[in-house]
Amino acid sequence: MRISKPVWVLLVVLALLFLYLPSLSHYFKLRHQEEKLNREIKEMTERITSLKEEEHLIRHDLAHLEKVVRQELGLVQPGEVVYKLVPEDQLTAPAPGNQTESIQNQADQEAAKVIQLKK
Questions:
Q1: Which of 31, 65, 87, 99 supports an S-S bond with 94, CB 3.0-4.6 Å?
Q2: Are 73 and 117 in contact (CB under 8 A)?
Q3: For 16-51, how does the pLDDT look when each residue is reduced to its tens digit (9 = 90+)?
């Protein structure tokens, strides 16, 4: 029994698909991973550039340095008074008759924090 030419061609094509399909699938997975890593590299490069610009501003622009120190560290200049607004839900409920004392204790604690930051 002799196998016809179209059947041989079909068998060869199927064998090639069987051999190369896993490799092709792996190739596409790697391409997807490469694209993802390239996006991450681009994002990190942009972040590095942004941080370098920020560093330059902090080193050379005193107004920007003061702004950053005030915002991120909460530091104040000597003689300045800081008013910190606290939402009502974060206040501790004082005992009846001790409301003034509780508020004074909170103010003292905040002042101590500011003094420690100055040091």
A1: 99
A2: yes
A3: 877 777 787 888 999 999 999 999 999 999 999 999
What is the pLDDT at residue 116?
59
Residue positions counted in the chain: 119
pLDDT at 39: 98
DSSP secondary structure of 36-74: HHHHHHHHHHHHHHHHHHHHHHHHH-HHHHHHHIIIII-
Q: What are 6's two structure tokens? A: 């179209």
Which tokens sit at 14? 């199927």
Please state, in angstroms and rounded to a whole number, the distance separating the CA atoms of residues 36 and 19. Answer: 27
Eight-class DSSP state of 92: P
CB 73 within 8 A of CB 114: no
Cβ atoms of 75 and 118 closer than 8 Å: yes
Query: What distance in Å separates the CA atoms of residue 91 and residue 105, rounded to the nearest whole number?
Result: 12
